[in-house]
Amino acid sequence: MQEETSDDQNRVTEIKRIVQKYDVGSRYTTIPLQKASILLPLIFKEDRLHLLLTVRSMKLKTMPGDICFPGGRREPTDCDDIHAALREAKEEIGLRPEQVEIIGRLVPYISKVDRV
Q: By its UniProt entry, which InterPro entries does this protein fall under (predicted)?
């Protein structure tokens, strides 16, 4: 594992400040719709900050091959939206919850997906 430099720490502090400015907390958790949650994983690689995206398998029935953030549908066993995003990220890319620091929750996006 790479050691963080003070420049990295300064960048992380600035990102946290920006995201926390828009953090909505639990304000939208009671919306009575089926929910899905995603992570926007920020990682340092080769001294540069990256946003991690995934590519959905071509074998999936819905949205095969799409480029997306790790995450997915909330299950009845998930205690909240954050737990759903962490569970899905672990299933999809092996990202363990203890490797993640949640720095904020952003305004939800409501979409209508027609199923054939």
A: CoAse, NUDIX_hydrolase-like_dom_sf, NUDIX_hydrolase_dom, NUDIX_hydrolase_NudL_CS
